[in-house]
Q: What sequence folds into this?
């Protein structure tokens, strides 16, 4: 078979170590040989530049394929697709917002339509995993990854309840598993349990949105027009709660604040507005510059130099805000890993999350105040 194998140092399509690790996991899960199998990457019509990208596991390279191998994983690319993929790098990204493959291509626009397909063997019908607009060629392999790799921590929805209609014990959040009637739920049920999710801070947004749309349809009042008055009221109440829960959980910072709130660990008060000790000097200088700008505005003085100084200060604090967000993501990952840990370990992580939220709030307010004065 006339395949062309490129060594890592001359490969025109690159794999990061993290992406290669995820590909090996996919191969192992599907029972495909690590020595022969690989991830097939292709280009087809569609997307903002007239092109879209497809991926699937293949058991072996095909005739005329170009094969790129790095970090123990292989990519199979047909000659036509290689013309478009030359110079790209495949990465696997894990952030607080999303998890999935990032296909960085300098030759394409910034927000393409990414399509990924899945199939084990050449010749099999393809199963599309996702088709969604994404910046930096991001495709969240979520449905597949969640099914095959994502562990699910216990949720508070596993406690059996007694159905008000058939009086059978039922395990489920919204509907009776015996008669299908909409259920009353305890007031103590939190937003995570409302979505039948563990109390994790790393939530894949596509999965959350899909669950929200499914539940919104099932709980919509139109479905209960002919039901009892109690069921109609439950539908309205549950739909409202679901909307509130979705708004909260889809916001990474709001999600952290909510988690700390239900755990009784959100502490704001006066400490929230205290400047972090290491920023005291910079905050003092910033406040002086803001006062000078206000005085200059009132007196009609020259604002040019002061504006330049404040823009530089704003940029500096915006960088600090990005740094805090990175620390918050790291702490969120620690929380998810400690879900089954002892209470002391979880409290320590929550104290760290609370500290970072307060720091973030203070810096964000500084940036906002500067922005207002610069208008």
A:
């Amino acid at each position: 078979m006339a395949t062309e194998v490129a060594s890592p140092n001359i490969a025109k399509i690159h794999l990061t170590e993290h992406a290669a690790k995820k590909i090996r996991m996919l191969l192992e899960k599907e029972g495909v040989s690590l020595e022969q199998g690989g991830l097939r990457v292709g280009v087809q019509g569609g997307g903002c530049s007239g092109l879209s990208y497809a991926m699937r596991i293949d058991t072996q390279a095909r005739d005329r394929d170009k094969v790129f191998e790095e970090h123990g994983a292989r990519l199979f690319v047909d000659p036509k697709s290689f013309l478009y993929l030359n110079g790209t790098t495949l990465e696997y990204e894990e952030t607080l917002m999303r998890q999935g493959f990032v296909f960085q291509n300098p030759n394409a626009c910034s927000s393409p339509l990414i399509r990924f397909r899945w199939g084990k063997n050449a010749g099999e019908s393809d199963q599309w995993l996702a088709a969604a607009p994404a910046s930096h060629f991001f495709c969240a392999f979520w449905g597949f990854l969640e099914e095959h790799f994502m562990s699910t921590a216990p949720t508070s929805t596993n406690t059996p309840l007694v159905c008000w209609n058939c009086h059978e014990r039922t395990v489920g959040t919204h509907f009776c598993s015996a008669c299908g009637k909409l259920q009353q739920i305890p007031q103590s049920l939190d937003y995570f349990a409302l979505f039948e999710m563990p109390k994790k801070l790393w939530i894949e947004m596509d999965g959350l949105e899909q669950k929200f749309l499914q539940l919104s349809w099932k709980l919509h009042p139109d479905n209960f027009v002919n039901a009892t008055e109690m069921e109609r009221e439950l539908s309205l109440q549950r739909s409202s709660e679901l909307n509130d829960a979705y708004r909260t959980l889809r916001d990474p910072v709001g999600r952290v604040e909510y988690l700390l709130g239900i755990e009784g660990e959100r502490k704001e008060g006066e400490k929230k507005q205290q400047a972090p000790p290491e920023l005291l000097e910079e905050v003092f200088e910033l406040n002086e510059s803001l006062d000078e700008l206000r005085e200059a505005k009132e007196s009609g003085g020259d604002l040019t130099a002061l504006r330049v100084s404040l823009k530089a200060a704003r940029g500096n604090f915006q960088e600090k805000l990005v740094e805090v967000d990175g620390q918050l993501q790291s702490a969120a990952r620690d929380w998810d890993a400690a879900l089954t840990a002892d209470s002391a370990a979880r409290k320590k992580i929550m104290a760290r999350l609370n500290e970072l939220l307060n720091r973030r709030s203070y810096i964000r307010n500084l940036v906002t105040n500067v922005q207002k004065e610069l208008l």
